[in-house]
Amino acid sequence: MRPYHLNIPTKLYYGRDIWRGALREIEQMLCGSVMIVTTGRSLARLGYLGDLKRAVTESPLVDTLTVFDKVSANPRLSEAEEGVALAKDAKADVIIGFGGGSAMDMAKAVALGAKTDEAVGAFFYGKSAVGKDILPVIAVPTTAGTGSELSRAAILTDSTKKRKGGIRGDALYPRAAIVDSIFTESVPFHITMQTGFDVLAHAMESYVSKAASPYTRMQSEYAVRTVGEMLPRLAQDLQDIEAREKMSYASMIMGINLGNASTGLPHRLQYPLGALTDTSHGQGLAALYCAWLGYEYQYSRESVEEMTSILAGRSIRGKEACTGAMREFITRLGLPVALQEMGIGREQLDIMAEAVTGELANDPAAQEQDIVRKIYERAWRRT
Ligand SMILES: [Fe+2]
Question: Domains in the chain, start-ordered, CATH in brackets?
Answer without folding.
Answer: 11-184 (3.40.50.1970), 190-381 (1.20.1090.10)
